[in-house]
Amino acid sequence: MKVFFRRGDVPSKSRLQLSNRIMDEMGEGYGYGSIDGEDVLSKLRGQRFRHLEGQVYLDHAGATVYGSHQVEEHAKLLMQNVFGNPHSSSSPSSQRTTDSIDSVRRDLAAFFNTTLEEYDVVFTSGTTAGLKLIGESFPFSRQSSFAYSMDSHNSVLGIRSYAAAHDARIFALPVDVLDSIGQQPTSSLPPLDDDSRTHEVCNLVAFPGECNFSGAKHSLSTIDWVHHHNALNDMKTLPEYQVNSNRPSGDRPLGKWFVLLDAAKLAATNPVDLSKYKPDFMVMSFYKLFGYPSGLGALLIRRSSAPYLAKPYHGGGTLAASFPTLLDASRPHAATHRRFEDGTLPYLSILACTIGLQSLRNLTMPAIQRHVAALTTYAWHALTALRHANGARVCTIYGTHHRDPDAGSIIACNFSTPDGAWVGYSEFSTLAALHDIHVRTGCFCNPGACQAHLGLTTDEMLAHMAQGHVCGDAMDIIHNRPTGAIRVSFGYMSTQQDVDAFIMFVATYFVSSRTHLAASRLQVGHDVPASIRLVKIAVFPIKSCGAMHVDRWRVGARGLLFDREWALVDPATGAAFSQKHMPLMATIRPVVDLDAQQLHVSCDNRSSKLSIPLHYVPNSPTRFQLCAEHCQGRKYNDTVNAWFTSVLGRPCALVRATSTGTHHTTRTNGFANEAPFLVLSRASVRLLHSKFGGTDTISEDGFRANLILDGCRPHEEDEWGEFFIGPHAFRCVGPCGRCTMVNVNQATGTSRTAPLKQLASYRRHRGKIHFGQYAAFNATDEVAPCWIHVGDSVTVLTPQSMDNGSSELEL
């Protein structure tokens, strides 16, 4: 087998030897063999997954990739037949739909090696909907218990609210405790006696077949031990794991236990045999298996367990009889799936499942399991072999299961610098996206596994939340510790080339090839040019909109007068807009007219303009979110907001900063991100231009600096502490971490990837991409107005610690 590298990269001899050794350890599980001398996997990628060309898709645990044949065959099926609403049972099109749906039910049961005689198949909108159905239908009582493994998905944790509503006891089982149940021998187990389960008290235990955070698998023999041996009732330590404090934790549970298997991740790349292991309920999503259709899943209910479920709501199609004037006379359909499928099913989407299931059957699930396990092993060895030049480990992988030949298809990890500082997952995903590498970052809706693997206490996680950290944000490092991870996951069409491309990306950007930073420290009064000048002043009245360039401007503790004084906010979500998601904002040109005391706003593609009095502060207070921080401001009226809505093509509201609220009790700098000023030298921009090799350029305006200087060395501003512009004192407070906004052309509002890519190649320090320095105004007495002018001289007094930034990448 060949080692693949992208885009002309030539591997070193040592790296090639390492890759060959890793491939030997990958074993024979990779791929699906050959037919008539043609490699099956290569043919599969070439014929059905051409849309993956140039992409490195490694988020199959989120959703695997659909094949072009699925879409084409589904479209052909729809175009050659007429399918009607299955509830219109008298029409031939309805009967055709009903027959087709029933065929998919049989196919799905067979896919899991069972029959519709033992399990009924209930179609849902996905795994979460199936879990919700069980939660609202399960017969919880005050005597009941609900237990779940700590590495359960949030959708499983949601069942706690139904159990708590009935005052049931709730237990969070550590992963090792759950696994200890399934590790006992099962050869001597007696046959399952369903009659023994007709106890008045019903309990429920839920766990994932494969953890969607780490890829660790749980033994399905746990199901048998729960059913046959009352393993949870006999567990002496179970009361220790009770989480609802309002209930005394004394006695062990009574009654019979039902098992809910979350197979959303497991079923995607592993055979699930329901003839061998028989959970009472199992949930899954089709897009995890074969990508298309999305928004569709199934709940498999064991028929012997179905009578215990009491569904509280019955919508259209679930009732055999109903009376509008009688409350207790409605009669649900006898068939389980008819009782649980409210309303009209997404029947056209269900028809597509036959095509996807056939694709997996052709490859076989055991072969898919071996293939993804081989890739996971290959990636695990490659990542764990990476070392910085000083010998420090590059990658920390969570979990110890990856050497197992039956390993799952996930690697969750974080990366660190040579000195042990963590690389933020937000920066990692930003760089990965620039290279068309698709990964998932954060906690993946699995707080228990995230907490356990990151070693965070509950108090620490609560403190993170109090600081504004929420799921999906960019607060990836708090108090020098990661708040989430980077997840790489493989699917049945993943290739070794995908892994090689990912490893090359990591080696390029996150592996240090020298032992120390080659950046000189500035000495006071030494090597500081005497001719540094302020050459440009840029004011950004509306955050993330265009700049206003001036020859002179007033400064103060809040920064340049009226800088980031206003922001545009989504009125529905309360989130502030930015060019990262709306690059068109760059074409909105605000101008502060101090003589007329007006804010004039225009847009490149509109003839109409907007003018707002500077002295006017709206009376309508509003709270909104700026990055991860909650802020307060004053919202303008509908007329003003209508103008911005028309320009951007989506509802938005203009908000003005106030001097109160969370944001301004800690920082009095309008809506600026980190500090009142952003300083950048033209020499730094020239150096960046030289990195492009003359093929591309970026305007200095793309970095949205307030103060642009000239006459100093490239990135000399990184080394400054205190400096003067004319007679006014400033101090550098830290480097500016860059994101995809530098890719936005400030003249046209269009985006590209080159600028941030190029910066990342030489301007990374401790996992961040730095370009420019934040600064603050040092004046203590602002009685007299302070003005700066283009042409003012710049005098540097003191250096700052190099810990705040660097002039070169740690490579």
TrEMBL record:
Cofactor(s) required, per the database record: pyridoxal 5'-phosphate
Molecular function as annotated in GO: lyase activity; molybdenum cofactor sulfurtransferase activity; molybdenum ion binding; pyridoxal phosphate binding
One GO biological process term: Mo-molybdopterin cofactor biosynthetic process
Domain of life of the organism encoding this protein: Eukaryota
Keywords: Molybdenum cofactor biosynthesis, Pyridoxal phosphate, Transferase
Enzyme class: transferase
Signal peptide positions on this chain: none
InterPro entries: Aminotrans_V_dom, MoCF_Sase_C, MoCo_sulfurase, MOCOS_middle, PyrdxlP-dep_Trfase, PyrdxlP-dep_Trfase_major, PyrdxlP-dep_Trfase_small, Pyrv_Knase-like_insert_dom_sf
Catalytic activity: Mo-molybdopterin + L-cysteine + AH2 = thio-Mo-molybdopterin + L-alanine + A + H2O
Annotated active site: 445
Modified residues (N6-(pyridoxal phosphate)lysine): 288
Role: Sulfurates the molybdenum cofactor. Sulfation of molybdenum is essential for xanthine dehydrogenase (XDH) and aldehyde oxidase (ADO) enzymes in which molybdenum cofactor is liganded by 1 oxygen and 1 sulfur atom in active form.
PANTHER family (UniProt xref): MOLYBDENUM COFACTOR SULFURASE (PTHR14237:SF80), MOLYBDOPTERIN COFACTOR SULFURASE MOSC (PTHR14237)
Family: Belongs to the class-V pyridoxal-phosphate-dependent aminotransferase family. MOCOS subfamily.
Full protein name: Molybdenum cofactor sulfurase
Origin species: Aphanomyces astaci
